[in-house]
Each structure stands twice: as structure tokens, then as C-alpha cells.
Specification:
Blueprint lengths: L1 H4 L2 H6 L2 H21 L7 H8 L4 H11 L2 H13 L12 H37 L4 E6 L2 E7 H26 L1 E2 L13 H11 L2 E2 L10 H28 L6 E2 L19 H22 L10 H29 L2 E2 L1 H9 L7 H10 L4 H18 L3 H6 L2 H4 L4 H7 L2 H4 L3 H8 L2
Parallel strand pairs: 3-4
Antiparallel strand pairs: 1-2, 5-6
Length: 430
Amino acid sequence: MIARYTRPEMGRIWTEENQFQKWLEVEILATEALGRLGVVPKGAGARIRKKARFDVKRIREIEREVKHETIAFLSSVAEYVGDDARHIHVGMTSSDVMDTAFALQLKEASALLIEDVKEMIRTLRSQALKYKNTPMIGRTHGVHAEPITFGLKFALWHEEMRRNLERLEKAAADVAVGKISGAVGTFAQISPRVEAYVCKKAGLKPAAVSNQIIQRDRHAFFFATLAVIASSLEKFAVEVRHLQRTEVQEAEEPFTAGQKGSSAMPHKRNPILSENVAGLARLMRSYALAAMENVALWHERDISHSSVERVIAPDATILLDFMLRRLTYVLGNLAVYPENMRRNIEKSGGAIFSERILLKLVEKGVARDQAYRMVQRHALKVGKGGGELKSELLGDPEIRRYLAPADIEDALDLKHYLKNVDAIFKRVFH
């Protein structure tokens, strides 16, 4: 199911082939820079770029013996390059290669996620405009409050995803950082000009200061941002699930021809797509926590973060790509039932208009607390036993002392509650 919504490009970013290709590119760029500085023979970089290859199976074979992935990688490359291999990895440490290459992978993944977010934003905008004037009941605590429009719900989500886009772009830039500064970040065996060259060619920023690694607060911010986006998606998905409940039935997920909702009950149409998104958001938050645990390492670096990142980096980016694409499909293809929205508005018998009656009484000089009690007794009666608030109010001599039938009729006008929808939309879609 994940493969259906996740682009193959995202999965390819995290293949061993792409990982080692990124390592190789960093090594080649560093050798080119060293050649420019005269540290290695001038033509070595060009010869290495022409010959350099690796074999994943061979890397793993060598690794079984040496128990060191970077050494195994360099040994495999050396088998293709020959004598010039002695000019590769000069003055560098493993993390120079691994962290800079990891930044390139995260940069590639971020570009796809940014595309996903933008596509969701476009879908939310389209749905907001489509349902801008479709009235529905607003709910607080799950209980009927006052009328809104379905378009306002989409506008709210659109604005949240716009903020998420800004967060993601900032986090992607923050993690797009390389370092070629040697064993403990002092450039003792390699010039800072090599780092500058490699990062410029690779499209990264050089870390202003590092120890053996890029500092993991950057990565913690990145994965926390992915978790925030996932939490927003969960919020939207939970709303879809609530709206699809039989007792509400105002909107529901697309249900395709031939689809079956239950192995036992043929009538079922379950919000399984939204439920999947809600469940995966829990995983995404756990990845953020794991990334935060990676920030505190021993002294200039230990290796405890590496094993974590080998799991959370592909998992988090692939899953968020899946979640964004799946929920964009759901939201863009919702079955919407305006007649049920209207039915639910009317279900309260007008009790949802109680605030406006209260305010009209206050305008006529009634103390707020007194006005509240005057309206509440009728609203609760209607809410519990049925009937219509309008008839209750018209039959109350105390209220009729202050409000004429025309005042009560005006207070129950749905249009009053939606009069500023245009103004809100101008603020969101300016």
C-alpha cells in the first residue's frame, strides 16, 4: 500500500547504490580540490573521476573482514582506480564523507517533500474555494457550537500547511551542510579550502565549525519538522474520520468501485486511508524523539547516532511522502454531503443561535448574566427535548418584553454567522 502512494524516487535516495555514489562524489570533489592546491598531482582528480567505481557486494565482502564500512568502500574504489587511489581520502575522516553525503541525501528527500506539501496546499486551496459558502455546524468539544462553512475548514488547513512549508524549507536549508575538516574538525591535515570547494560544487553550505561530525541539533530540527507536518496531517485525517461517522455523515473518503469495507458487513465504508495517516503520525513523532536523542554525543563524537539515522532517515522521509500524497488524494476526492450538513445545523432546533439572542438582550439593556440565564433555559430545553428555540422565545413574556418577533427572526438568520467569510478568505488567499 505504501508503494502505491510513495514515489520511487524517494526510495531510490536511500538505496546503498545512491549512498555510496554520494560518498564517491564527495571523495572525487575533495581530490579535485587537493589537486588545485598542489597537495596531490594535478591530473589525479580527473583520472580518478574517469575511473572511479564501486561494487556494493564487494564493499560488503570487504567489510565483513575489516569491520569498517568506509575502509571497505575505499578499498572497493581502489580496485577500479589503481595507483591513483592513494590520492583519495587524503587528510579526511570517515564522517567528512558520510555526513556530507548524508546532507546530499536529505537535500534530495527534502525537495520531494516540499513538492508534496505544495501539492497539498494547492488541493486545500481548491477545496476551500469550492466549499467557501457551504454552511455546516462548527463543533467545540465535539458538541454543536455555531455555524461555519466547510470552506473555512479547508482554509484553516491551507494556512497551517503554508506554515509547514516555511518550516520545511527552513529545516531543509539548515540540514544542507557539509564538512571536510578532518578527525576532530580542526583542519589539521586538510585545508578549509577543500571543504569550501566540495560544498560549493555539491550545493551545500560549509559548517562554520564542526568537530568530527555535523552537529545533530540540525538533524533534530529537521526530523522534528517532519513530525510537526505529520501531526498536522493527523489532525486533518481525524477530522475526516469524525465527519464520516454514521451519526454525522457530512463527508467521507473516496470509496472506489469494487472496494469492500468489511469482511463481515457489506454495508461498511470505513475511513481506512485517514486512519492509516493518523497511525503513521505516531511513528513520525517517535523518529523526532530519536533524532533529539542523537544531539548529545560524547566529546568530539561517538557513533551512537549513526545506527539511529540509518533507520529514521529513510523511514521518516518515505513515510511522510506517503502520508502527504495519500491525504492529498483523500482531501481532493472527498464525497461531501451539503444536505447532511444542513440537516445537522437544523438538528438543534435553533439552539445554536443562542449567543445572538443573548447579545440582542444585552443590547436592549438586560444584564449579561440575567440574559444568559433567560436564553439558556430555553436552549437547554430544546437541546434535550426537541422543539424549536424560536417558538420557545416567542412564548416567553420576559424575553418578549425586550425582543420583538422581528428581532428574534433576525437573530436566527444563518447569513449573519457567515457574513465575514469573504474577509477571512481575503486574508488567507491574498
